[in-house]
Amino acid sequence: xxxxxxxWLPLSPGERAVALEVLVHxxxxxxxxxxxxxxxxxxxxRLTKPLLESGLLVEVPEGAPLAEVRQGxxxxxxxxxxxxxxxxxxxxxxxxxxGVVTTLRSEIVTRYDRPLxxxxxxxxxxxxxxxxxxxxxxxxGLAGIGIGVGGLVQDRAVVGESAFLSWRDVRLAELVEERxxxxxxxxxxxxxxVEAETWFGAxxxxxxxxxxxxxxxxxxxxxxxxxxxxxxEEDRGFGRHWIVNPNGPLTPDGARGSAVSLLTIPSIxxxxxxxxxxxxxxxxxxARSAEGEPMPARVIDEAARAxxxxxxxxSNFVIPQKILLAGEGVGLMxxxxxxxxxxxxxxxxxxxxxVHLETKVSDFHDWARGAAVLAIQVLVxxxxxxxxxx
Amino acid sequence: xxxxxxxWLPLSPGERAVALEVLVHxxxxxxxxxxxxxxxxxxxxRLTKPLLESGLLVEVPEGAPLAEVRQGxxxxxxxxxxxxxxxxxxxxxxxxxxGVVTTLRSEIVTRYDRPLxxxxxxxxxxxxxxxxxxxxxxxxGLAGIGIGVGGLVQDRAVVGESAFLSWRDVRLAELVEERxxxxxxxxxxxxxxVEAETWFGAxxxxxxxxxxxxxxxxxxxxxxxxxxxxxxEEDRGFGRHWIVNPNGPLTPDGARGSAVSLLTIPSIxxxxxxxxxxxxxxxxxxARSAEGEPMPARVIDEAARAxxxxxxxxSNFVIPQKILLAGEGVGLMxxxxxxxxxxxxxxxxxxxxxVHLETKVSDFHDWARGAAVLAIQVLVxxxxxxxxxx
DNA sequence: CCACTTACTTTTGGGGCGGAATAATTGTGG
DNA sequence: CCACAATTATTCCGCCCCAAAAGTAAGTGG
Lengths: 390, 390
Description:
2 copies of one chain form a homodimer. The longest helix of chain A is centred in the last third of the chain and has 25 residues, at about 295-320. With about 400 residues, chain A is of the alpha/beta class. Chain A starts with 12 loop residues before the first helix and ends in a 9-residue tail after the last helix. Chain A is built from 12 helices and 15 strands. In chain A, the strands form 4 sheets. In chain A, strands 5-4-3-6-10 form a 5-stranded mixed sheet. Chain A is globular. In chain A, helix 1 (about 15-25) packs across helix 3, helix 9 (about 280-290) packs across helix 11 (about 330-345) and helix 10 (about 295-320) packs across helix 11. Helices cover about 40% and strands about 20% of the residues of chain A. Chain A has 3 domains: about 15-80, Winged helix-like DNA-binding domain superfamily/Winged helix DNA-binding domain (Arc Repressor Mutant, subunit A); about 85-195 and about 365-380, 2-Layer Sandwich (Nucleotidyltransferase, domain 5), CATH 3.30.420; about 205-360, Nucleotidyltransferase, domain 5 (2-Layer Sandwich). Chains A and B meet through strand 12 and helix 10 of A and strand 12 and helix 10 of B. The structure holds a DNA duplex (30 and 30 nucleotides).
């Protein structure tokens, strides 16, 4: 039961691959791992031995459920001790810091939020440090911190530009490391969510996987070959120029008929406000649309068609195995899912593979969890170097 | 100077990687190959020695041009003897068979076309056999045959369905192999072109690469991580349901405002015919549009906008390093390239990476060359197995 | 002619993998 | 109750392939 706080760095590539496979795909027997990684049974014994000795993996007592009617020597599933390390994830918004503590498997153990009183970088770092200190009392085994911020983030460490915080070139990772002594990763929030879903969520084990988020803005992430594809505009707001319907509405953000104008929560609220003079919440608009009130129904219908067109375009051109729809705005699917699907089908070849669309409601703690996953990645893969190398 | 007609099969993976690198990226010195494949200099000596001995590679006398002002021992570039093997590629259309002979590097050495008098599978195979026999007289070192067909092709051997030939489940590879004694690969024509461009053309060495063809129909191919992504509808006509402009024209093929209706040569000619009652060739329409004649100009303008929107969508969602535009219809770019680019920019984030769009005029011999590349791949990679494995 | 640079070759040592033989552990069938 | 089959894991050995280091080759510049 060694408790190395450092990292998994002294692992050989083979060992790391085994650890990663077990971490991401749950308890697995040695022979199962051998099949997945196309290694021989002998290699597996060799690779797992040091991992078991170091306490990173354990043999689990084989929960009977997968017993079946198999004969032969029973397999001995291996598992990661997910609770052996804890990670902190923060999501910074304009007026709040949302925090979570997760296990190695990115399961949320605790939530802890606090209002953000100031935007001064040092004061924000102070607050993150204090929150971490308080969390550390309950979870002494903290191994790293991930921070998600909307905006442009460089080298997983520096906030190059963030409009809502009025930050430019803030070395946030450094500031928080100084205060906590823990390794810190900073990343754009959408990128973090995509990484999290790739490792532990809907994109687990997939080769081609796309994430579309709708909420205050549009987010998009593409994962190919298990790696997220970096994109120049990813930190500056997707969808402002994705013209879905040239005759669509004009809103303060985004070009006429763009995904932003048609789909984001602020734009939808703006459209209702402009048309009716009344200010409604997004939920209210959805509810009234479901009840058939004409104006909300028209706006929501248009949004659903736009969403369907986007999903179809992604399906047609990226040919992903799965598309994940996430964010605060996915309630749209509950109210207008049928219209979305109709539009998808209208934009797809009838013989094309069916679109595998998964919807996931996300609150701010999911964004924070995404940030925590980055800290996990850094620990598991060795210090961040080369993670987002092209 | 051994002349093994078989294949490169007895090569180790390392040797094959070296051979492939030299084949695809031209003459390279050992140290350059070492850098590209991240191998040590020592490994390269080891790997290249058997390749040189077997005559697959040769040391070229270093054509002075790349001399530069370098000091040190001059490098000794290695090259494939591209002429050591020849390959035949056929493209079958409704009334013609286009044939080419290429080198190992897929350079076209000879063209040889013949009208296709019948669609009977055995007679077609007879004709392909005869054409191959005639070509074999001039090029005795034929090592394989590739055949490109529009339609659904299974296992690189069987034409599952081809509308214009009225074929169903024709085991074309088998039929031609019987007549020629050479290994035969059959593939959908668009797929073949994409493979060819990936190995020897615009997509060489790229990680993410998309091909869009416009001509009698729309073609699309995606290459990720150097491998073409298979797609369920690829053999049944892309673009019939890619709705680019919901208010666009309605044509016999494709849904209203679809890429097919807006962009394919038959649809453009149909639009002009429907509007003016006159039948014009595609070239004529392009010419008159350039001269400002209103009706052709309108149709071409609309087509250009559609093309721009498609390219932008691909850029936005796939984030490719390059998009290749090919086919018989790319003359559109010459006449209306500006409109296309305007539309692309209107659909892209201003801070996004610039779109790298390459245009390539293709005639039927390019399609045949694409088919020949498949034969090259089979020889180089070992008999086709696993090439299109998911 | 000698230092210096770069390219290639040879040799050596070691890591890691596959494969065969063995042990462990259970179910099956007489 | 005991072989026997089936399956998983372990041990051991040999091979392959690679990196590192040291040596050789071939040129440039003072």
